[in-house]
Design goal:
With about 170 residues, the protein is mostly helical. About 75% of the residues lie in helices and about 0% in strands.
Length: about 170
């Protein structure tokens, strides 16, 4: 098994930066829809008691996108000539798209129900990505576990908001 330190012995800093910035871009796209609703429509919703304060989401997501970018880099570093690398990164891009779409659906369209369907698909895509990453780089797969845990919690929040506001 290759350790994270071993995987990053000879980093290609341009690839690393691209992978991290690409991941952060999904968050940026989502934030375009979030900021317009978070002080308006979102405040009118009933939320579960365990809903974290708003200031928590920015640092958590920024950290998760950083970890996702590093994970993608570790897989990419194994070589795009390998079928399993291309497949894993394809799944990664797909789940990033679903991630950005969640904010569009929830905050942009004001649709907790539609966002619930989206987040269920996102959760499944993250599982598939972790499995595909594990075949290429175990450290990369492990870097996605906090993301899966947070999206699991976000799924609960989404479900609770949908239920409380139906």
């Amino acid at each position: 098994m290759t350790s994270l330190a071993e995987c990053m012995k000879r980093p290609d800093y341009l690839k690393l930066a691209f992978a991290i910035l690409g991941s952060q871009a999904a968050g940026f796209i989502g934030s375009l829809f979030t900021f317009s609703s978070v002080r308006g429509w979102y405040t009118t919703l009933e939320r579960p008691a365990v809903n974290p304060p708003g200031w928590v989401f920015g640092p958590v997501w920024t950290t998760l996108y950083l970890l996702m970018g590093i994970a993608a880099y570790l897989v990419w570093q194994k070589g795009m000539n390998k079928k399993e690398v291309r497949y894993a990164l394809g799944l990664f891009v797909g789940q990033l798209a679903l991630n950005a779409m969640w904010s569009m659906v929830f905050f942009g369209l004001h649709s907790p129900g539609g966002a619930l369907v989206n987040i269920a698909l996102l959760w499944l895509a993250i599982i598939a990505t972790i499995q595909a990453f594990a075949k290429v780089s175990r450290p990369a797969a492990w870097l996605l576990v906090p993301y899966l845990l947070w999206v699991s919690f976000a799924s609960y929040l989404n479900f609770a908001i949908w239920l409380l506001n139906s």
